[in-house]
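Please fill in the sequence for the structure shown.

STRUCTURE ENCODING:
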């Protein structure tokens, strides 16, 4: 029986995941904030600064979705998104 895809083809990270690894980003969702108009449930930050509380406001972004939190972080730091690089 032949396989539809080679194992090496499906083991590759998506462009978004490669981009997040490149910038050492982590995202997390606090589901208790869904429906809360005051706070956004998704957050994105640079993992290398995870244990640093020096400039939390600058190194942390939020959004209503994972992509919104990532886009807010990228905009704040002047980083092109994975689908904008090379343009």
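FILLED IN BY: designer on duty
SEQUENCE:
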């Amino acid at each position: 029986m032949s396989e539809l895809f080679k194992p090496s083809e499906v083991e590759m990270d998506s462009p978004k995941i490669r981009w997040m690894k490149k910038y050492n980003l982590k995202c997390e969702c606090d589901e208790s904030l869904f429906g809360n108009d005051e706070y956004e449930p998704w957050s994105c930050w640079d993992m290398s600064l995870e244990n640093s509380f020096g400039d939390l406001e600058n190194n942390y972004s939020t959004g209503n979705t994972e992509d919104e939190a990532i886009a807010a972080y990228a905009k704040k730091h002047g980083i092109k998104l994975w689908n904008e690089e090379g343009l």
